[in-house]
Amino acid sequence: MKMGNFWVFQNQCMYLFFIFISLSNNFTLSLQQQNPSNEVMALLGFKQKSVAADPQGFLNDWRLESLTPCSWRGVSCSLHGKVNMLNFTGAGLTGCLHMDDLMVLDSLKHLHLSGNLFSGNFFPMLEFKNCANLVALNLSNNSLYGTGIPRSLINCQLLETLDVSFNKLEGKIAAFLGNLRNLKHLNLGQNTFSGNIPQEMGSMCGTLIELDLSGNELSGGFPETFKSCNGLQRLNLGSNQLSGNFLTTVISYLPSLQILQVPFNNISGFIPVSLINHTKLQVLDLSSNGFDGNIPSGLCSNSSLRRLLLADNFLSGTIPADIGNCKRMEKINFARNHLSGQIPSEVWKLSNVHDFVMWGNNLSGEIPKDICSGTQTLEKLALNNNGFTGNIPASIINCANLSWLSLSFNQLTGTIPAGLHNLQN
After folding, report:
1. What is the tally of helices (H) and strands (E) in the chain?
2. What is the 3-class SS of 156-209, one letter each residue?
3. Is the confidence at residue 123, as pLDDT, over 70?
4. pLDDT tens track for 369-391
């Protein structure tokens, strides 16, 4: 974060804090006169202290005369009439976020503040002192800044979901997060966290289902302590500076993995054959790294694969014919590699493919004359900058959903199909 922006945020928050102090006596007296519940007092305190602007009128029905907040917008209560959920997702609220009033709500389990314009330093303003019952905390898509994550989160031992993505947090990822042994979903993506991924975080493996550390400045590898994450289904490490052979030493040991995303890193070497053993894998994104060698055969032996993204590497050799066994395949992107030879007929015949992107290779052969004859799912066909020969097949006019067609810089001959103008997308 730029220093100028830091001081702007800090000054705004301090200004609002002093306004709150100046009004607090009158506010407390008024609350006492109306005799509302403690939860009404806590929520109105949060509103006055944290919300500087409410352009959508999201909190208009939060009124002092209410004896209970259970009918207020964004508030849900248990059968016993206690507040157990606050959901301000996309409410457009602006202000400097403070948590002290909300921590008074001893039955609060779910707190969703995603998609607002809350700012503030994550450390002094977000203290989690009484969060023993908190199960889900979503602070994503705000403007929170600060170094690291407040250690007071260690008090939230029942926490299953923690999402602070798309903020302005920096520094190293806190090792103490490994002590949150009930976490199932952890998203720290799209901040500027740096340094290594703490090996202590592997202690979450007993419950962890989803881990997203993408869009940061993390370096090193993926710690071997995560090898025991038998239930991990979705892992996104993309857009960092990670390197090493952790795909073999760690990722290969994760039997439940369904989504693996590691694009835009510094990983090199061969694509590990051990990835073939992931029978549940649906998305494999290794694009924009330094992989070389061949695309391994057998990636589709499990037939679950839906997206195979290997663009922007240094892969060579031919495209394995057994990729045609991925009958559920929706997206293939092998662009900007050094692949050669013809695209196997088995791959051309995949009937569920939306994106077929092969541009920037040394591929040859002809485009099949029956393309889109058996399916109309194809939306993107990018074969430019290769060595394809022959005609543009007339059957291409059957690709009714085609939105991107790129055949330039090849050796195609003949005429352009007359019905091409009928492809309205």
Report:
1. 4, 29
2. CCCCCEEECCCCEEEEECCHHHHHCCCCCEEECCCCEEEEECCHHHHHHHHCCC
3. no
4. 999 887 789 999 999 999 999 99
pTM: 0.89
d(CA 80, CA 378): 53
66 pLDDT more than 90: no
pLDDT tier at 130 (50, 70, 90 boundaries)?
confident
What does DSSP say about strands 83-87 and 75-77: parallel, antiparallel, or unpaired? antiparallel
Angle at 375 between CA 340 and CA 280, to 5 degrees: 70
CB 182 within 8 A of CB 207: yes
State the Cα–Cα distance between residues 405 and 397, nearest whole angstrom: 11
pLDDT(46) > 90: yes
Report CA 219 to chain centroid distance, whole Å: 19
Q: How far is CA 115 from CA 55, 56, 96, 201, 206, in A?
A: 14, 13, 14, 27, 30
Q: Is 254 helix (H, G, I), strand (E, B) or coil?
A: coil
pLDDT in tens, 20-29: 444 444 444 3
Q: 134: closest CA among 103, 165, 109?
A: 109
Question: All domains of the chain, ordered by start, with CATH?
Answer: 3-422 (3.80.10.10)
3-state SS, 341-367, equals EECCHHHHCCCCCCEEECCCCEEEEEC
Give the separation between CA 156 and CA 133, rounded to whole angstroms: 7
Q: Letter for the amino acid at 422?
A: N
